[in-house]
């Protein structure tokens, strides 16, 4: 499928600029957001299906990741990522959007609906976190960097390419334990190298990753107190979950489903990156074809 028919944009954020791709189409734009260790390319397989459905699609890299700027000394946070999303909406002149959050961009998707309901048609979450959940587990890599009293250790790991590569490899193997053989092949060929490049290429996404993970537990606690605001604003939420994700498992989706006023739950036989494992099925749900 052709994924090259898009307009590129650089959107100023003061401490740097955001890289965005805008695919022409109609209806509320799907605005796709990535998680901690990756970038907009996790949607490369999904975008063509959405565009083929006639929809406008925007993908972008958060500041500090992918092709967006990674300025020395920049401050990264969940609030900054929420601001990145709003800057994209304003910069591209979007009216109504469907923010799509995966992994650590769950907070940006939900909180944007809470703070800017006039711009949000609905919300879509895929194997994401938002609030405290009884079944939630975080990848060992994330939990390590999120534990603030281990900062000296994690900073040392970041300074050592060999040590960081070992930790990444450990995490890669854990994520693949429950994937099908075809999904493992796809992971090895595409996702693994994408994540590695995010950290190895200079300037690196390491500083953004380290700062964002430091705020994880604080953000989750804050959002646990905010979820009732989603009940009040009546915005529908689609929960699309890979059932074999060993960390952000489908128990999180079921918990969110029980707390939200207008939500639909779709469990697929896929892993954490459900949009890569089953892009056609994810698109069907997003487009309302199932």
Question: What does it look like?
Answer:
GO terms for molecular function: hydrolase activity. Residues 28-277 form the AB hydrolase-1 domain. Pfam families: Abhydrolase_1. This is Alpha/beta hydrolase. Keywords: Hydrolase. The protein is of the alpha/beta class and 290 residues long. It has a domain at 7-136 and 215-286: Alpha/Beta hydrolase fold, catalytic domain (Rossmann fold, 3-Layer(aba) Sandwich), CATH 3.40.50.1820. It is built from 13 helices and eight strands. The protein has helices at residues 47-52, 78-91, 106-115, 140-146, 151-159, 161-176, 181-200, 206-214, 216-224, 228-233, 250-259, 274-277, 279-286, and strands at residues 7-12, 17-23, 26-33, 55-60, 97-103, 123-128, 237-242, 263-268. The protein has an eight-stranded mixed beta sheet, sandwiched between helices. Helix 6 packs antiparallel against helix 7 (181-200). The radius of gyration is 18 Å and the shape is globular. 46% of the residues are buried. The model has no long low-confidence stretch (mean pLDDT 94).
Secondary-structure map:
Layout: E1 7-12, E2 17-23, E3 26-33, H1 47-52, E4 55-60, H2 78-91, E5 97-103, H3 106-115, E6 123-128, H4 140-146, H5 151-159, H6 161-176, H7 181-200, H8 206-214, H9 216-224, H10 228-233, E7 237-242, H11 250-259, E8 263-268, H12 274-277, H13 279-286
Parallel strand pairs: 3-4, 3-5, 5-6, 6-7, 7-8
Antiparallel strand pairs: 1-2, 2-4
Helix pairs in contact: 2-3, 4-8, 6-7
């Amino acid at each position: 499928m052709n994924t090259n028919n898009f307009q590129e944009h650089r959107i100023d954020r003061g401490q740097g600029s955001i890289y965005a791709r805008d695919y022409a189409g109609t209806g509320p734009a799907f605005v796709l957001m990535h998680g901690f260790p990756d970038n907009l390319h996790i949607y490369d397989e999904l975008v063509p299906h959405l565009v083929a459905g006639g929809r406008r699609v925007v993908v972008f890299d958060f500041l500090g990741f992918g092709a967006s700027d990674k300025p020395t000394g920049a401050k990264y946070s969940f609030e900054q990522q929420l601001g990145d999303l709003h800057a994209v909406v304003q910069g591209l002149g979007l009216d109504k959007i469907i923010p799509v959050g995966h992994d650590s961009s769950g907070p940006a998707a939900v909180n944007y609906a809470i703070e800017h309901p006039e711009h949000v048609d609905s919300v879509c979450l895929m194997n994401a976190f938002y609030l405290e959940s009884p079944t939630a587990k975080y990848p060992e890599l994330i939990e390590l960097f999120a534990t603030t009293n281990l900062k000296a250790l994690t900073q040392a790991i970041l300074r050592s390419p060999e040590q960081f590569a070992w930790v990444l490899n450990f995490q890669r193997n854990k994520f693949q334990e429950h994937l099908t053989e075809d999904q493992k092949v796809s992971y090895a060929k595409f996702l693994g190298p994408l994540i590695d490049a995010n950290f190895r290429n200079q300037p690196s996404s390491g500083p953004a990753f380290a700062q964002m993970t430091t705020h994880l537990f604080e953000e989750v606690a804050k959002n646990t107190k905010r979820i009732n605001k989603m009940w009040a604003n009546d915005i529908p939420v689609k929960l699309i979950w890979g059932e074999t994700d060993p960390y952000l498992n489908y128990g999180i989706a079921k918990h969110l489903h029980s707390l939200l006023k207008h939500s639909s739950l779709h469990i697929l036989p896929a892993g954490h990156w459900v949009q890569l494992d089953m892009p056609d099925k994810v698109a069907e749900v997003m487009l309302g074809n199932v």
